[in-house]
Amino acid sequence: METPGRGDWKRREGLGSALAQIGVVAVLLAAAVAWFVHRGQVQQEMDARLRTARAAFLRGNPSDLAMAQQNLEALFALAPDSRDARALAADLQAELWLTHHQPGADAKAREQLERAEALGSRSGERYGARALLLVGAGQTEEARKLLEELKAQGANSPKLTLAQARLLQKQGQLSEARQSFARAAEGAWKDPRFSTAYGEALLDEGMFPQAVEAFSRATTANPDHLLARVTSALAQLYAGRPPDGVQATLDEVHSRAKDLTPALQARMEVAQAEVALAKGNPDQALTHVDAALKAWPDEHYALFTRGRALAAKRAPEARQAFEAAVAKRPTAPLLALEGARLLQAQGDGEGALAMLDAYEKTFREVKARTADGKEVPALDRDDRYWLARGGVMEAAGRQDDALAAYDKALAARGVGLARAQYAKGALLLARKDFEGAKSLLTAVAPDTGTGSMPEAYAALGELLFAQGEFAAGCQQHYFALVRARAQGTPVDQLATRANDIKKRLETSGQPTMAKAWLNEAGPLFQQQ
């Protein structure tokens, strides 16, 4: 029996309940939509922060690294467990420690790296940072094993190649290190840090033109990369270029004091020291060196330039300065070989020989791989070392030892082959072995005048004078002056040389030729 009004109650109850359920669903749906929208917005902000951090890191200046840090910190406030961001933060702190020498950055790098590894990051920053930190801490065996394991797994990136280059450099395998630095720079050509690292490695070896070219690539990627600009200026100064060409760069960098990390401050002061040294003011150079070492006590270029300034003053402390530089960077040939040359020039033959002995000890066990895959002692292929040793021995009057060293340099058949031919030829000339000297000197001073070594043409001119061939000798001396002028030798020096040759001809009973010589050579130093 139907109860009056019951059907209406059911209908009313069903409609209200349905409306309530619809309302609940709508609320839940709105909440879900809001949650998904918020989550999407958060993810978008995280992605944007990570992109911005990477882009800033790529530019490589301290202010850029600070911007990258700020974006990473903002990202971590949104997502503390972002594993790739943690890996990037580790890489950034490693850069601040290894390149800019920021206090405490090594500990921060390890902390970020441990978090990235715990979260399972497999980004290139994670593995690259780990390898670079191991090399920077001197854990070369651990770094070698890690790089070999990653290579076996097929890992390959410019950052791993850079770590490999730094490892090889520490081990004294300089030829292989150069190749790795070059590959890393080529693979990361948009990142100025890689080309800058390559340039610094070349500078350590005294390869100044190649270093300047590498720094130029870095500034092509970022024209405002401060470390590349300052170190390029230093390389040019070491190469003997006039300081006026780099002073504007140094002044501009100096005006940006807030942007200078300890590394940049030290490097800039070293460059300023070299400017002072080029202008004949070693005392001012030493003041800049002190400022560089105050900014960063381990700056090996500062210690090296201190040695150069003290050698210019003929101070006995030069040897100690050069030895301190070598102790900071034992596998940098520039420091030891140039240091030995300068010590010898100031009369400290004992100190020069000690520098070379230390260099030989450093590289004695190092092996180099030949084109056919064989391993040979690296010193056997190091013509720079044997040339330097030969020069020291020759200056000390030990001619037989000098000849043996020059023969080693010739056998290496390296980039210094022409220099080795000249060095041995000049020594044989001094010993009056004219035939032996002539065969070597003509190889680098051809009769066409196309050779690039003024000193080789001058030596050949002296040889021909000694044999009574004055006309042919004058021709070689003329080539020597032409080459010297083309290489920027001052006019007064050219005039002095020409007058010396004129006097030689007159005392040899050749007055007519002496007059003809001066008429022929005069335009070389009268017009510049």
Strand order of the largest sheet: 1-2
Spatial shape: elongated
Q: Profile the largest sheet.
A: 2 strands, antiparallel
Distance between the termini: 130 Å
How much helix is in the residues? over 70%
User: SSE order, as H and E?
Assistant: HHHHHHHHHHHHHHHHHHEEHHHHHHHH
Q: What's the gyration radius in Å?
A: 33 Å
The total of helices stands at 26
Percentage of residues in DSSP E strands: under 5%
Unreliable parts: none
What is the strand tally?
A: 2
In terms of structural class, how would the helical and strand content be classed? mainly alpha
Oligomer: single chain
List the helices and strands and how they pair.
Elements: H1 6-59, H2 62-78, H3 83-98, H4 105-118, H5 124-136, H6 140-152, H7 158-170, H8 174-187, H9 192-204, H10 208-221, H11 226-238, H12 244-254, H13 262-278, H14 282-295, H15 300-312, H16 318-328, H17 333-345, H18 349-363, E1 367-369, E2 375-377, H19 383-395, H20 399-412, H21 417-430, H22 434-444, H23 454-466, H24 470-486, H25 491-507, H26 511-526
Antiparallel strand pairs: 1-2
